[in-house]
From TrEMBL:
This is Pirin family protein. Belongs to the pirin family. Residues 211-314 form the Pirin C-terminal domain. It comes from the Bacteria.
Length: 350
């Protein structure tokens, strides 16, 4: 990281590696942006898969990857324990299934928040629905750590439908020149949807914020100060020029900034600028990670592995490792208790 001259900006780092660097309490942040071709009849890419390492394709060949999918891109059933996943589905769709018996199709701005707790198995398939036009799938997956006392809580997931996520509109006179989507935390009188009950974000002292900022050319926005116990990282992931205070940030760079300082962002480029903000008070506990398992000590990882071998984290109630819903199925969620919700019925949201 290179130190800057601005007191509020602690460091700037290029976003050239995956995952992106994060601060406690965040463990992981990755940006998937796959420009899939038109779909075939099985909701996979209508293109040759020759030359790809099917089942482990992260190549980005032709602008897209299959990941661990062999027909439909995505991540067939796999376990998690000891942390949470926040999945921001910006474009395209994700078909979710899990060992709690829950399932969902979400996308187009929806957010899924899942507490793995003492263990869950889930699948994330990226169905390609359009057989006449390309299928872009863009998403963030963020891993948020859990305090030790919450790592043994039951798994839980909730949906934040795009229509219910608060947005602060950035104005210049009567014109709207940008917006901030408030996925977690609070901003200018807007409160984000309620996170899962055992989340670090459910505690007021965590000061967790997850925001995405859009700025039209020439527009600016000032992040309000939090406090000196709060870490804050800004990821400039879309656009051609952004100024942070008077420091010019190059595209695809991240900045660690002081939590107790106001910081002004201005789009000094000619295209839309977009920034992801991850903010939070550190949990401050030891972290040991082994793939999709997170504990505080090495013995925790051994116990998680034993629990997974013995229980399968509840088993797998589906016939396929990567269930895909029918092509014409809309956005929905079925929870572990059988309750079903859709974006058309936000009053039934979890």
């Amino acid at each position: 990281m290179s130190e800057t001259k601005k007191d509020a900006i602690r460091a700037i780092v290029p976003l050239t590696s995956t995952p992106w660097p994060t601060l406690d309490p965040f463990l992981f942040c990755v940006h998937h942006n796959d420009h899939y071709p038109v779909a075939n009849e099985k909701m996979g890419p209508d293109a040759s898969l020759a030359g790809r390492n099917i089942g482990n394709d992260f190549s980005g060949k032709d602008g897209w990857s299959m990941y661990h999918g062999d027909t439909v891109p995505g991540f067939p059933r796999h376990p998690h324990a000891g942390f949470e996943t926040v999945t921001i589905a910006r474009k395209g769709f994700i078909d979710h299934s899990d060992s709690m018996g829950a399932s969902a199709r979400f996308g187009q701005g929806d957010v899924q928040w899942m507490t793995a707790g003492k263990g869950v198995v889930h699948s994330e398939a990226f169905p390609l629905l359009d057989r006449e036009n390309p299928n872009t799938t863009e998403l963030f997956q963020i891993w948020l750590n859990l305090p030790r006392e919450d790592k043994k809580k039951d798994a839980y997931f909730t949906m934040f439908w795009n229509e219910t996520i608060p947005r602060h509109l950035i104005k210049e006179g009567d014109a709207t020149v940008g917006e901030v989507a408030v996925i977690a935390g609070a901003l200018h009188g807007l409160d984000a949807p309620t996170p899962p009950p055992s989340s670090w974000a459910a505690r007021d002292e965590s000061n967790i914020a997850i925001w995405t900022i859009k700025l039209q050319p020439g527009a600016s926005f000032t992040l309000p100060a939090a406090n000196d116990e709060t870490g804050r990282v800004l990821y400039f992931f879309e656009g051609d020029a952004l100024t942070l205070e008077d420091v010019v940030m190059e595209p695809r760079h991240g900045a660690q900034v002081e939590g107790d300082a106001e910081v002004t962002l201005q789009n000094t480029g000619s295209t839309l600028a977009e920034v992801l903000v991850l903010q939070g008070r550190p949990i401050g506990e030891p972290v040991v990670q082994h793939g999709p398992f997170v504990g505080n000590y090495q013995g925790d990882i051994r116990q998680i592995m034993i629990d997974y071998q013995n229980t399968g984290f509840g088993g797998w109630p589906f016939d396929a490792d990567a269930p895909v819903h029918p092509r014409d199925k809309g956005r929905f969620a079925i929870h572990a208790d059988g309750r079903e919700e859709t974006p058309a019925n936000p009053e039934n949201a979890a």
